[in-house]
Amino acid sequence: MTDKIKVGIVGGTGYTGVELLRLLALHPSVEIVAITSRSEAGMPVAQMFPNLRGYLDLAFSQPDSAVLAQCDLVFFATPNGTAMKLVPELLEKGTRIVDLAADFRLRDEQEWQHWYGESHACPELLDQAVYGLPEVNRAQLKTANLVANPGCYPTAVQLGFLPLLEAGLVDSEHLIADTKSGVSGAGRGANVGTLLSETSESMKAYGVAGHRHWPEIRQGLSLASESKIGLTFVPHLTPMIRGIHATLYAPLKSGKKDLQNLYESRYKNEPFVDVMPAGSHPETRSVKGANHCRLAVHVPASGNTVVVLSVIDNLVKGAAGQAVQNMNIMFGFEEDAGLKIIGLVP
Amino acid sequence: MTDKIKVGIVGGTGYTGVELLRLLALHPSVEIVAITSRSEAGMPVAQMFPNLRGYLDLAFSQPDSAVLAQCDLVFFATPNGTAMKLVPELLEKGTRIVDLAADFRLRDEQEWQHWYGESHACPELLDQAVYGLPEVNRAQLKTANLVANPGCYPTAVQLGFLPLLEAGLVDSEHLIADTKSGVSGAGRGANVGTLLSETSESMKAYGVAGHRHWPEIRQGLSLASESKIGLTFVPHLTPMIRGIHATLYAPLKSGKKDLQNLYESRYKNEPFVDVMPAGSHPETRSVKGANHCRLAVHVPASGNTVVVLSVIDNLVKGAAGQAVQNMNIMFGFEEDAGLKIIGLVP
Amino acid sequence: MTDKIKVGIVGGTGYTGVELLRLLALHPSVEIVAITSRSEAGMPVAQMFPNLRGYLDLAFSQPDSAVLAQCDLVFFATPNGTAMKLVPELLEKGTRIVDLAADFRLRDEQEWQHWYGESHACPELLDQAVYGLPEVNRAQLKTANLVANPGCYPTAVQLGFLPLLEAGLVDSEHLIADTKSGVSGAGRGANVGTLLSETSESMKAYGVAGHRHWPEIRQGLSLASESKIGLTFVPHLTPMIRGIHATLYAPLKSGKKDLQNLYESRYKNEPFVDVMPAGSHPETRSVKGANHCRLAVHVPASGNTVVVLSVIDNLVKGAAGQAVQNMNIMFGFEEDAGLKIIGLVP
Amino acid sequence: MTDKIKVGIVGGTGYTGVELLRLLALHPSVEIVAITSRSEAGMPVAQMFPNLRGYLDLAFSQPDSAVLAQCDLVFFATPNGTAMKLVPELLEKGTRIVDLAADFRLRDEQEWQHWYGESHACPELLDQAVYGLPEVNRAQLKTANLVANPGCYPTAVQLGFLPLLEAGLVDSEHLIADTKSGVSGAGRGANVGTLLSETSESMKAYGVAGHRHWPEIRQGLSLASESKIGLTFVPHLTPMIRGIHATLYAPLKSGKKDLQNLYESRYKNEPFVDVMPAGSHPETRSVKGANHCRLAVHVPASGNTVVVLSVIDNLVKGAAGQAVQNMNIMFGFEEDAGLKIIGLVP
User: Fold this and answer.
1) Cα–Cα distance between C177 and C195 in angstroms, integer?
2) Chain B interface, mutation test: which of C48, C197, C285, most B Cβ atoms within 10 Å?
3) Least buried of A17, A143, A170, D311, by fewest C-beta within 10 Å?
4) pLDDT at C255 (0 to 100)
5) Which residues of A158-177 are buried (b: 16+ CB within 10 A; e: fewer)?
6) Contacts with B198 from chain C: Cβ below 8 Å
7) What are the beta bridge partners of residue C104?
């Protein structure tokens, strides 16, 4: 195939990095030409991640902007604050970018600085960046040069709330998102708090006072709604590796609507959003390793509150899979190229 | 010790049964005289549960009301609908009862019938039964002959909401309880739905349309509040054995209060309710195997919603431990007798 | 593609069944025409297994030999003792068979009867059946009409021991196979023993006195060796869903050999057996969802014992994946068609 | 109680430390006077380990030999190589010591240096130290001033092999110990390798080439046997928090013996070793949180190999519980004081 694009990955040793490799190694239109890691330069990737043995014959390399600039597309799977330092140069040289970190997710420079604790290195690009939620911004993504791949919680929460807000059916000032994430969402860093012995057989909330995904979600919901957004967001650490379950609550403005039909209509052309039949309870495992978001919408007996259940795999639709979906849109591939993956059950 | 009471357990093969045995086998004031199981009569208890080897030298026996009537106290660790058929006879003979199932939890006969799908066998006892939440009904428990041990979710949710409702600080018509339970809460029955291969590495909600603990919680909260209760209750199956994490949301009536102080005052004399310092995120593992409920109260940035985090071990404070606590109160033992157990961490 | 083969699956509700569906639904040369289940006939498959939503639009049907006989290939994912009753008729009508159960794994009728507790329904076919371990019987599989797909433990253990026995380097009378399996190996039946609450956070051996995979392994090893086989086989239930880790011990006949080279040579043309570099410790997760067997061979300090580490996914290389690999060989497809799957890490 | 002993703990922030605290906080004859941690000095212990809230009102302190020297007993729950630097001074001042690390486990200075990679700081004490396996050295422990608490694997393996070796029934040159440990055995350090996302849903061997517990086990078995010991030891990391399952293999010298009786006789007076009935398969969960070792002995069909199954909780009988048992023996307390704990099932 002469028409494969050249792809580079900056920061390949974390969970989003290895997940990108799992997806891209089998993608029909992609050639991976560089995977960088300062700390592991020289080590064959498949030595660190033996699941890739036989599928990827490449070693980690030092980040080198000359090499990266020869790529058609560079994914950043780096900690927050890294991409923004390299992106301007690469864009200038014509390389397109998908940043899986948070550097370009917020449009407001001040808000970014507040939540991420440093000045933004290229605030002038914040407006240019397209927020990579295909279900909202597919048209812009086709021509985007800089894509801000959404956070994991924001993906699950926005896809769950959007139909209600777009239709103006709920009191948008009293939204609640109670979200549960597998531990891989905390990354592959060496931290006591994510050891198996600390997190298995236990459940806890965290970041109740404030979490960086809160402004990102609020920004997305505000764009979808004509009203002010009031959102209480409580994430929980759940004893599993992968998966996000978002349980969303919103006060119904008046009486019952045909919400099932609303959701099915909103997402009927979406390849990766699956509205389940009325009465369903989606399980995170149904999307384990897959790029789907499964949704169910309920109005329990009391009748004044909508409950939306939204599940994704935090590393796929919540990170690397969505990044590949964005790439597919940007380069005119089939949107599900490399993403025809069935959730691993059991 | 001549003053040990004689205790019987009806239905000893489930998880609440074996947990009762774990606690009672080491209780200084209890002699276990009978453990019944129709299906396993004759089998030594420690053969089914080898953790009890060396601590309990008793076999399962057929339920025999003559034997049970010689007990000072009989615990029912049976499926719903069993206790109500035996309790009247035992009460008449002077045996006191703690029912760990739901037969006597609802005061309203019609509501019981609606949720449990059969007629109640002794509705005249519903008024007499004391709801066994010591933090609410300690005085009545001292003299109670029939105690309805609360459900697991209702314990975690009520202890979390009570201070707010008693003080009238929240809009009681828009309460939300998002609850997460370990799989042992579903019991020891042979069901596909609770196999490890079905529930591990996954998260899901269930019973969104209606759950039997909903009327029980609503009843308790109504008694504590002067206002009407509107409650949305969504339970989730969590990939762990033990533990309940209840995340509770309530709209604050007006502005911020000193909720930390409110909670500390409400529970300052409670041996098993621990209000954690402001800003805490209790973990379920901190109460694994222990009878404590740990609480934290937050008001996130937006300022209009209280978030309460409440954790218990569903088999201890949510079942067998609370039953022993009730027994201790009923018989005048130290309230923490047999319950001085530190959560198993890690 | 006009050259897709028609495939049927008998017994589609267990874990090997759903795993076959996951693999076959995306296989480029297969059309699934029937999935039978007596108990679930009429139910859409994707209703029971929502991970298949969007990938498989088929309902369970009653087993109907007329329908099955129109298939080019029928997989049996049934309990032991089922396939043998239907296979003769299907073979006669020209349908080829891969049985994922044990009906045709043992060549000796008496031994089969001893271990499976009933008479064999078609002992005359035992000789005709080809044992579906491609690494041993690839040539015969190409023309086989009846394939006995190996058990999960036998796959991991035989692939680990074969090079040593074929080369005659070890004392074959003192082989030890200490094997650890995820809980999915016990199937999707409703059993107390495989509940999450019974198997999570625990490890145990089982079947030490005798296990049905023992004669199967011994048969395979005997065919590979010129000496008598003495095998101690101890399986263990491990708190995870998928994966088998076989730790194999054999006394070396004399001194150290270049075992690394032996293993690499033996498997160098095998698409699904990966001999890791010297000193490696393969993890089961490196093959989670994938059809690979990863091996490492060690001779610890003492020098008189070889230790082989062999990992597979019990549902893939240990069941459905190997069945698809066998199908690929039988029908002349690329051997890895539908099996280019990278292990899901993390 | 005027006769409580004063106890200090050096290194209280790891898993053996917090487990010691769980056990000692409720011990009737112990007063904990100091818990040291260089890194956390000043922090209340119950802030780091909220399960201890209400049971322990003490803060971590800087290690101070003057304070420690006032203790009757000091436990070292430190990394290897720490205790040996402080022990001589404390012993001189009359403080007795239980070291839970490996500093005093090996009698041979050269071997210690080989395996632990540094010179021993007080080799003259190696002979004086008593190896704290009560089932072997109870008499010496009563008067010991310096106790080397055994490693977790060595406890499970030695208790399993001892009766066979003492009776001379097996070929001691071909012993195999295939051991499986929960992840807490690797400690509470911040390591990628023990993250939940790395270790859950996976099984692997490690240290096949050599593990520090190998010389410790060999030393203990050599003392019990009149023959030379040849031991192959393969540890495995198992996806659970607590528990060790040792599966032990030994060639029987000649024919079947009444091994069940041998084991029952050997351990009949041992409070913490439970020989299960013939045919049993002990589960690690049966000792979760408890100080018991449960054993079962099998001779599978082939008849030439004994299989012993031995389970402990690595943090209790494999560390802190055995340390408390040793303390009880040293100070003449009831041997099970503070250790009457039933395994947490489920």
Assistant:
1) 26
2) C197
3) A143
4) 63
5) bbbbbbbbbbebbebebbbb
6) 188, 196
7) none
CA A46 to mean position of chain CA atoms: 25
- Backbone Cα Rg of chain C: 20
- The structure tokens 């029971």 sit at C48
* CB distance B134 to B271 below 8 Å: no
Looking at the DSSP bridge assignments, the partners of residue A295 are: A275, A310
Cα separation, A199 vs A185, in Å, equals: 13
Q: How confident is the model at residue C318 (pLDDT cuts 50, 70, 90)?
A: very high
The alpha carbon of residue C180 and the mean position of all alpha carbons in its chain are separated, in whole angstroms, by: 15
* End-to-end CA separation in angstroms for chain B: 36
pTM comes to: 0.97
Coil vs helix vs strand at C121: coil
Residue C2: the pLDDT is: 54
Write the pLDDT tens digit of every residue in A274-327.
999 999 999 999 999 999 999 999 999 877 899 999 999 999 999 999 999 999
Instruction: Read off the pLDDT band of A254 (50, 70, 90).
Output: confident
| Percentage of the residues of chain C whose pLDDT score is greater than 70 | 99
The pLDDT value given to residue B254:
79
User: Which residues face D281 on adjacent strands?
Assistant: none
Among B13, B152, B197, B288, the strongest candidate for a mutation testing the C interface, having the largest count of C CBs within 10 A, is B197
Residue matched to tokens 């769950």 = A160
- What's the rounded mean pLDDT across residues A243-272? 93
- How far does chain A reach from its first CA to its final CA, in angstroms? 36
Residue in chain A lying closest to D193 (CA): A190
**Contact assessment for residue C244 and residue D324, using Cβ atoms and an 8 Å cutoff:** no
pLDDT at position A1 is 46
Q: Is the CB of B22 less than 8 angstroms away from the CB of D346?
A: no
Using an 8 Å Cβ cutoff, are C294 and C287 in contact?
yes
Q: Which residue in chain A has the smallest CA separation from C197?
A: A201
* Domains, in order of start, for chain A: 5-128 (3.40.50.720), 152-314 (3.30.360.10)
How far is residue D308 CA from its own chain's centroid? 19
Radius of gyration for the alpha carbons in chain B, expressed in angstroms and rounded: 20
> What does the alpha-carbon distance between residue A175 and residue A249 come to, in Å, rounded to a whole number?
6
> What value, to the nearest 5°, has the Cα angle with vertex B96 and ends B93 and B98?
140
CA angle B215, B220, B223 (to 5 degrees): 120
Q: Write down the pLDDT at residue B302.
A: 72
Residues from chain D that touch C243, judged by Cβ atoms under 8 A, are 201-203
Dihedral pair phi/psi, residue C116, rounded to 5°: -105, 0
Q: How is residue D151 annotated by DSSP? A: P
DSSP notation for D258-314: -HHHHHHHHTTT-TTEEEPPTT---BGGGGTTS--EEEEEE--TT-SEEEEEEEE-T
Active centre residues of A (catalytic): 152
The rounded distance, in Å, linking the Cα atoms of C107 and C92 is 21
- pLDDT the model gives residue C23: 98
Q: Beta partners for C177?
A: C233, C248
Instruction: For residue B241, give how far its alpha carbon lies from the nearest alpha carbon of chain D (Å).
Output: 7
Residue B314 contacts residue B184 (beta carbons within 8 Å): yes
Q: How many helices (H) and strands (E) does chain A have?
A: 11, 14
Interface of B with D (CB under 8 A): 15, 18, 22, 25-26, 49-55, 184, 188, 200-201, 241-242, 274, 276, 280, 282-283, 285-290, 292, 294, 315, 340, 342-346
Note the Cα A286 to chain centre separation in Å. Answer: 17
Map tokens 């073979």 to a residue. Answer: C91
Chain A adjacent subunits, 3+ CB pairs under 8 A? B, C, D
Which pLDDT does position D257 carry in this prediction?
A: 78
Chain D residues whose C-beta sits inside 8 Å of any chain A C-beta: 15, 182-184, 188-192, 194-201, 239-241
Dump pLDDT digits (tens) for A84-116. Answer: 999 999 999 999 999 999 999 999 999 999 999
